[in-house]
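=== RUN LOG ===
request id: a7f3
mode: sequence -> structure
chains: 1
length: 85
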Amino acid sequence: MLDAVLGTLAGVVSSSLFVLALVVGFCVLFGLVKLRRTAGRGAVVKSLDETLTHLPLQYLSPGTPHGQVDQLHTPELIEAAAPKS
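=== RESULT ===
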């Protein structure tokens, strides 16, 4: 009976360690691929566009209007914020 319990325990531990090593190896392998330099001086790939153009992304400041509509100044929000008389 003791041999069966020890054999089962050894099998579970060895298979768990194998799966753990497989997951850690996969994460390390694909984590290192991310760290290659594509644009600018950064080491991390931020987007597909940066990878294809080899130019760093141009980020907009928070106060810059984005597109056709400024979502913070829609007529509905201006009307809701207006003082009620």
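=== NOTES ===
DSSP finds three helices and no strands in the chain.
The mean pLDDT is 80.
=== END ===
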